[in-house]
């Protein structure tokens, strides 16, 4: 599917400037600007497609969702399947590269030397056939139960920070999770050393340190650390935008 998708997408990415300039009779700067606007919109739709979860909108949606869909087919609890995850990404990148190579050679040649409409029909046909292959394999997929959206988890950190901005923090930050942790230790020791004493196992499992089920709760210590890591990596995003604009 990714092979066919990349044949059409990369072919358009490489030839649209020529199409706008020679066929639509745009000037050179307008042709380049229109092409980069199209590509930027396609890639920015990755955020929308990922938020909806495995629903592709344009080129950006499928590029953000396809790797996640592929990795979900491996069971991380199985050591044999877990070690094949790296091989999946190797083959995934290889297929994408092969599709791009066919797109920028064969399809671009047909578009520029034969007829543009035939080149666009080839791109559209490849995308449609790839969608058919994806749909035919649906019954064989491992469907992962959707969890909380990463974007909502990021938003939760900011909302809780605003709601509790004036709350006085304890002197020892360990006290933020200490009570749940001590309850967990107590019941774990009880179960370990006094197996002959009846223990409510459900109560034991529910006594450990965990986040409440209520959204936008005050227990977001783990989420705040994830937010910190995201902010550390965020300076790289605008540099990638500049890179694609230069291309």
Automatic annotation (TrEMBL):
TM spans (from-to): 7-26, 38-57, 88-110, 116-136
Entry membrane topology: Multi-pass membrane protein
Gene Ontology MF: a single term: transmembrane transporter activity
Subcellular location: Membrane
GO cellular component: membrane
Pfam families from the UniProt entry: PTR2
Keywords assigned by UniProt, alphabetized: Membrane, Transmembrane, Transmembrane helix
Protein family membership: Belongs to the major facilitator superfamily. Proton-dependent oligopeptide transporter (POT/PTR) (TC 2.A.17) family.
Protein name, per record: Uncharacterized protein
Lineage of producing organism: Eukaryota, Viridiplantae, Streptophyta, Embryophyta, Tracheophyta
């Amino acid at each position: 599917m990714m092979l066919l998708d990349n044949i059409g997408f990369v072919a358009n990415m490489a030839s649209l400037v020529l199409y706008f300039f020679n066929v639509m009779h745009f000037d050179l700067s307008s042709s380049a600007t229109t092409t980069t606007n199209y590509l930027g919109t396609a890639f920015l739709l990755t955020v929308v497609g990922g938020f909806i979860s495995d629903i592709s909108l344009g080129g950006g949606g499928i590029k953000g969702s396809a790797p996640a869909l592929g990795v979900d087919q491996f069971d991380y609890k199985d050591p044999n399947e877990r070690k094949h995850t790296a091989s999946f990404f190797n083959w995934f990148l290889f297929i994408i590269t092969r599709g791009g190579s066919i797109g920028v050679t064969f399809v671009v040649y047909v578009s520029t030397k034969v007829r543009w409409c035939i080149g666009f029909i080839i791109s559209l046909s490849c995308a449609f056939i790839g969608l058919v292959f994806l749909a035919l394999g649906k019954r064989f997929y491992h469907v992962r139960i959707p969890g909380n959206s990463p974007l909502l988890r990021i938003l939760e950190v900011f909302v809780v920070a605003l709601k509790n901005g004036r709350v006085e923090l304890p002197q020892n930050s360990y006290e933020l999770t200490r009570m749940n942790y001590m309850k967990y230790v107590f019941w774990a020791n009880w179960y370990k050393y006094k197996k002959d004493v009846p223990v409510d196992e459900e109560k034991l499992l529910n006594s450990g340190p965990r986040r409440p089920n209520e959204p936008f709760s005050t227990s977001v210590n783990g989420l705040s650390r994830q937010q910190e890591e995201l902010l550390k990596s965020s300076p790289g995003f605008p540099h990638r935008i500049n890179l694609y604009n230069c291309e």
